[in-house]
Design a protein that fits this description.
By secondary structure, the protein is of the alpha+beta class. It contains 17 helices and 25 strands.
């Protein structure tokens, strides 16, 4: 018996065939890139997701058949807040991707409702969330809004193609600003405030449950047996945390991917929800997660490399060499890592990145080291917010930036905590496997499944006390710089000011 996991990311789709103990039997990956525009739009044809998913599943089913393997279940995990508006199951627009920020100005007129949305949905009105994108479609493309019968995210759209049923699980619904985080049902009051139609939403199911069974039509497209259960395992960040072994409440997952995500498990919601935290449903039933997001994370390093390491044949090797050459030294400059705004502690879209106190002796290595340190110190501010919910014993780190040992050490120094690297790059897919294996009753609980499936040893990094002190002083200077620049044109302006 084998499990087929479909993992839909921002830049790739992976299909992985696992046995119940987490052995990767076979995998297929296809990469793609959304279209970014200067007006803040980020889009992708919906056909990219359907056609590539069908192609990947078809190849894996062919492999399974040749090797006499029976696929007992298909489990889906995905990026969480991209919008596909459909009529009779057919997309009416290109997918509005989660990074799309065109709605931001429209939401500014509704900021008086932020407290209500925070307490009801678990977050203030968030331009990344699905509900905001639906709101944008209604205001900017009203004809399409009227024609739409269901507003779906990517996994809901794919699940419909597989099963013929509309649904979304509560992990995704908690990323809409439209679900009541306490009752796990669509909230009529929140729909009324934004003037949206609740009947355009799919039904909410629990994560780790079946959203339907594959149809005969899907069998004709892919070869996957008609009647195969399709499980909605939960959003990619929830599954990544589960797949890295985050089950207890005293550990935090820090994922340094394109965007950054801090996640902590919680058994019960507090009476009053903190505006600096996003409250989402966990991939583990009857649990919640505390989440703090950074819009830009590894993309900040990519920006620096693209602009300052263009002539290097081994760009990442040179980056590691340069970081090691200056590690442990006092940082004399001040840096704000806000290339797409500030999101930890407060949301400030009117600030951008900056360097000060650069002298003739300052080097590219110094700037790189200061930039990455400032990013991890910003993450540490988020960990400080989490500490109000209890002790943090250690940090599990995942994502692209963990490919660098020196950056892993710098994370430990910046957080002044042990950090443990989850070495398996398939943590998101493994989380989806755990969810499916519990559903199929191969394991009796998520804890048992995690213990049996997540077996790779974690690599630990411990804080360097002398460097911790340097970083704390550096952080003080960065806070001073932010206080000076926030709300000013020196901190943020656009070209139109020169017109």
């Amino acid at each position: 018996m084998a499990y087929l996991i479909l993992d839909i990311g921002t830049s790739s789709i992976r299909g992985i065939l696992y046995d119940k103990r987490g052995t990767n039997i076979h995998s297929e990956t296809v990469r793609y890139s959304p279209t970014y525009s200067s007006d803040g739009s980020v889009t992708q044809p919906a056909s990219v997701f359907s056609e590539l998913s069908i192609s990947i599943i078809k190849k894996i089913v062919s492999f399974a058949n040749k090797n006499s393997l029976e696929i007992s279940c298909l489990s889906i995990t995905s990026q969480r807040s991209s919008l596909i508006a459909v009529s009779n199951g057919k997309p009416l627009l290109d997918t509005i991707m989660w990074q799309d920020t065109r709605v931001s100005k429209l939401l500014d007129h509704y900021r008086d409702y932020d407290y209500l949305f925070q307490q009801r949905s678990g977050s203030i009105l968030n331009p990344i969330y699905l509900g905001s994108k639906i709101f944008w479609v209604k205001h900017m493309n009203r004809d399409t809004y009227i024609k739409t019968d269901k507003m779906l995210n990517i996994p809901s759209y794919l699940a419909f193609l597989m099963t013929g049923e509309y649904s979304t699980d509560a992990t995704y619904a908690s990323r809409t600003n439209l679900m009541n985080i306490h009752t796990l049902e669509w909230d009529n009051d929140l729909f009324d405030i934004l003037g949206l139609d609740i009947e355009k939403m799919p039904k909410i199911i629990m994560p780790g449950s079946m959203c339907g069974k594959t149809t005969q039509d899907f069998q004709k497209l892919t070869g996957l047996k008609h009647g195969t259960p399709v499980v909605s395992a939960g959003g990619d960040q929830q599954c990544a945390s589960l797949g890295s072994g985050l089950v207890s409440n005293d550990e935090v997952s820090v994922n340094t991917g394109t965007g950054g995500y801090l996640i902590k498990n919680l058994d019960k919601l507090p009476e009053s929800l903190n505006k600096n935290i996003i409250y989402n449903v966990s991939a583990i039933p009857n649990k919640y997660i505390l989440e703090i997001d950074l819009v830009a994370c590894s993309s900040i390093l990519n920006w620096f490399i693209e602009n300052f390491y263009t002539n290097e044949s081994d760009k990442y090797g040179k980056v590691n060499e340069d970081l090691n050459s200056v590690y442990g030294k006092p940082i004399l400059m001040s840096v704000l890592p806000f290339h797409k705004g500030k999101s930890i502690g407060k949301t400030d879209n009117s600030i951008r990145a900056g360097f000060t106190n650069i002298g003739l002796s300052s080097s590219k290595s110094d700037m790189l080291y200061a930039l990455m340190s400032s990013l991890f110190l910003e993450i540490n501010h988020g960990l400080g917010i989490f500490k109000s919910y209890g002790k943090i014993s250690s940090i599990k780190i995942t994502g692209g930036l963990t490919n660098s040992k020196i950056l892993n050490q710098l994370q430990s120094d910046s957080y002044n905590l042990e950090v443990r690297q989850a070495e398996n790059p398939e943590s998101t897919a493994l989380g989806a496997l755990i969810s499916a294996a519990v559903f199929m009753k191969d394991y009796t609980s998520f804890s048992e499944a995690t213990e049996c499936i997540i077996t790779k040893k974690l690599t630990s990094y411990f804080p360097n006390e002398s460097n911790v002190k340097h970083l704390q002083k550096f952080d003080e200077h960065n806070k001073q710089l932010y206080d000076l620049l926030k709300g000013t044109e020196a901190g943020f302006f656009k070209e139109k000011l020169y017109e």
